[in-house]
Each structure stands twice: as C-alpha cells, then as structure tokens.
Design a protein that fits this description.
The complex is a heterodimer of chains A (269) and B (80). With 269 residues, chain A is of the alpha/beta class. Chain A has a single domain, classed as Alpha-Beta Complex (2-enoyl-CoA Hydratase, Chain A, domain 1). In chain A, 48% of the residues lie in helices and 17% in strands. Chain A contains 11 helices and 11 strands. In chain A, helix 2 packs across helix 11. The N and C termini of chain A lie far apart (44 Å). Chain B has 4 helices and no strands. Chain B is mainly alpha-helical. The chains are: A alpha/beta (269), B mainly alpha (80).
C-alpha cells in the first residue's frame, strides 16, 4: 500500500498536481545513513502506487548547507569500530545492496525525475542527483566525488551513472583529483540541464515538471527507457570493487582521520 | 586584464558582502576563516562565489593551506 504522503525524520514526500516531491531534511546536510536509507526504502516501496497518479518526481533539500553531503561517514566509522572486520564488511555490502536497490528503482521509474540541487552535492549526494533524469542546479551548487581520499571509490552507483552521462576524461578528472566543481562547470560538461539563481532551483524544477506534464506519460516513459538504461552490470561490479577496497586498513585510517578532523577545510580532498 | 590589487579588492568587497562583515574590518593579510567567522562549508560557498564572480575555475586543492586574502587573490589572479 503506497503512502500518498509521508513525514519522516530524514525525508518527506507528497504528491501535488501529478508531481511527487521528495524533500530531504536531515541535519546537518542530509548525510545518508541507516535512518535515511530506511526512509528511502519506504519511499521506493510507495513509488508503485505514487507513480500511478504522477508524471514527475522532484528531489530536493530543505536544508541551507546543500542538497546532500553524501554517506554518513561518522556512522560508518562508528559501526566499523564495534564489529569484527568480516562482520563490518558484510554490513557495508548489505547497506550498498539496499541503497542500490532504492536508487535503481528511482533511476528506472516511469516518471521524469528531477534533482533540484543547491550547495553541497558531494559523494552519495552527487550519486543521488545522478539517478535523476535532469539536474537543475542553483548557481551556488557544488559537486564532488571525494571518496579517493578515504581510499574508496563512490559506492552508490556514481561511476556507472557518470559514465552514462559524460565522457571518460571528465570522470577521470573528477574522480582522480577529488576536486569539487561548481554549477557552471556541471552545465558545461553536460550534467546540469539548467543553472538558476540562488534559491531558485526548486521553483525551476516545478516549472519543468509542469511542462513535462503536458506530454503523454507513456511516450515520455518509453523515451526514457530507450535513452537511459540502468547500467546494472557495472553497478554490481562497483559494489564488489568498493567492498574489496573497504577491507583494507587504509580505509579505516582514512575514515578515522575524517571523523576526528578539526581541519577548517575537511571537505577539501 | 584585472590587476592583482584590483582582484584583491574585489575579493574583500565580495567576502564582506556575502558574509555580512564590514568591508573596512577586512585586511589583505588577515586569516579569512577568523575574519569572516566561516566554517568549511561556508568556505566552499566563498570559493563558488569567487569562481562565479571572476568566471574562473579554481580547484579546491589549490586552496589547501591558504588562509589569507592576499594569497587567495594570487591563486585567482593566476587563472584570469
């Protein structure tokens, strides 16, 4: 039974005029941990019903710092400290399998999906945006894949989905330098479909969703299915590579360093 | 072509306006974290503001260890 609306601790959703709005609101910047994943799974389960009456989905953040700062590294580190190494690794794989199921479901949804992003859109947050069909970026949005500094690769489907959208040289640049980049660059490399003034991303996403609503739903869904296949094989491979890397001591050291950092610029790789 | 002094002046004016600090209280060799009272996320905001204003791309690893406005201006000037 799909829930038409939901108010959770990490996110909420509602449907209005055929548009599902999924709002993220977990302090400090929508870090994706167990709580968020549970509510995202609830959303994915509700989608079967929700999408019967909708043509579009908008994902956005209600928090000032940004769209989403990525995986909850503090939770990941704390959990890995309380478990045996093999148990921690099983936990990580289970978490990845679960979040991949949710993101794959949203990726393939027969709706036009829009990420309205602002501020920090890092790591898992960037990966969540990449699941969507369109990214509409506030000009203060900033994107980054900082995982390499932890001794990891993005684990929520980032590389396969980035490969689907942009050239390999761009991916190498973003991944191997771990540098962040702004909305103008995101548009230049073909990731962001629109760049708007500060605070205007959600309004622009709603206008876009309204435009999409003028077209036949089945045609839009068929076009999406044709043009945007979910790269399932590579996504599976990504989980394996991530888990292989996660088992190394360097990752624990990297996580510890990040969690305990008092650096004024901990977000800079 | 912007001169280094003009670039520095524009950075100080922009930072003061964005973080609502009196312009006259900011000096070129000051630690901008302290002067503006900003954390890491706000530093990214400042970087984005500066990139948008000067229409440059400044990789954030070039800012590691940079704490004063003058060095920040030099990094931007090198990309104008």
């Amino acid at each position: 039974m799909g829930e038409k609306q939901f108010q959770g601790q990490a996110l909420s959703w509602q449907v209005q005029s055929g548009v599902i709005e999924l709002a993220l609101h977990r302090d400090p910047c929508n870090e994706l941990g167990t709580l968020s994943l549970g509510e995202l799974e609830r959303f994915a389960a509700a989608l079967d019903e929700l999408e019967k009456d909708a043509h579009a989905l908008i994902v956005y953040s209600e928090l000032k710092p940004g769209f989403c700062a990525g995986a909850d590294l503090r939770e990941l580190y704390q959990q890995s400290q309380t478990m045996e190494k093999s148990e921690a690794l099983r936990g990580v794989r289970d978490f990845l399998e679960r979040i991949h199921r949710v993101l794959n479901r949203i990726d393939a949804a027969p709706l036009t999906t829009i990420a309205a992003v602002h501020g920090v859109t890092f790591g898992g947050g960037f990966e969540l945006a990449l699941v969507c069909d369109l990214i509409i970026a506030d000009k203060m949005a900033r994107f980054c894949f900082p995982e390499l500094r932890l001794g990891l690769i993005p684990g929520f489907g980032g590389i396969p989905r980035l490969k689907r959208d942009v050239g390999n040289a761009v991916i190498r640049d973003l991944l191997l330098t771990g540098r962040s980049f702004n909305a103008a660059k995101a548009q230049q490399i073909g990731l962001a479909s629109q760049v708007v003034s500060e605070g205007e991303a959600l309004r622009a996403a709603r206008a876009t969703a309204e435009q999409i609503g003028k077209f036949d739903r089945q045609t839009a869904a068929a076009a999406k299915q044709f043009i945007k296949p979910v790269p399932l094989e590579e996504l599976r491979k990504e989980i394996d590579v991530f888990c292989e890397l996660f088992s190394r001591p360097a990752v624990q050291a990297g996580l510890k360093k990040f969690v305990q950092s008092t650096d004024a610029q901990p977000y800079l790789p | 072509m912007e001169t280094a002094e003009k670039t520095l002046d524009e950075i100080l004016t922009l930072a003061a306006a964005h973080f609502k600090v009196p312009r006259e209280k900011l000096s070129p060799d000051e630690d901008f974290f302290k002067a503006l009272g900003i954390d890491s996320l706000q530093t990214l905001d400042l970087l984005t503001k500066l990139e948008n204003h000067f229409r440059v791309e400044l990789p954030d690893y070039e800012l590691q260890g940079v704490t004063d406005f003058r060095t920040l201006a030099a990094r931007i000037q090198a990309r104008l």
